[in-house]
Hints:
By secondary structure, the chain is α/β, with parallel strands linked by helices. It has a domain at 26-104 and 139-182: Beta-carbonic Anhydrase, Chain A, CATH 3.40.1050. It is built from 7 helices and 5 strands.
Amino acid sequence: MSRLTEILEHNRRFVADKGYAPYQTSNLPDKKLVVISCMDTRLVELLPKAMNLKNGDANVIKVAGAMVGHPFGHVMQSVLVAVYNLGAEEVCVVGHHRCGMAATHAKTLLETMKSRGIPAETLDTLAHSGIRLEEWLAGFSDVRAEVRKSVATIRSHPLLPPGVKVHGLVADPDTGELELVESGD
């Protein structure tokens, strides 16, 4: 049985048994909060519990390394939608220790892509088109510095209205302990 078949079978039972009922809420974040966190599997349930968040409290954006890599990319677009359309007033960028992005090296990733069937010609074409794959795929070495960088990108955005607080935190993926790196207060 494929993973998709398993998911769909579970979903049929979930809906039939009204398993969704405890999670029903509005699309507006009750705590007027946006959380940008890493997609790391250890944080899926731990981070909301560590931050005292339940379903409906916050808009959560999951992205590798909790990185806001481009001021006009999709992560920043989501932040602006949450602020303007959903009433969010605060943003928390939450990186974490022992993040996979800290161990990501663009050259290694590119070699893995080739070994998984991406032709070298494709990579060359992208490079000649001005796409800097080694920059785009680069990880980071200092999670605190990366959180500060993402916070600065959000704070300095020309479309972010005054008064939106932007904070930066680093979480321990084992305990959920949060370290304040940047306060927006």
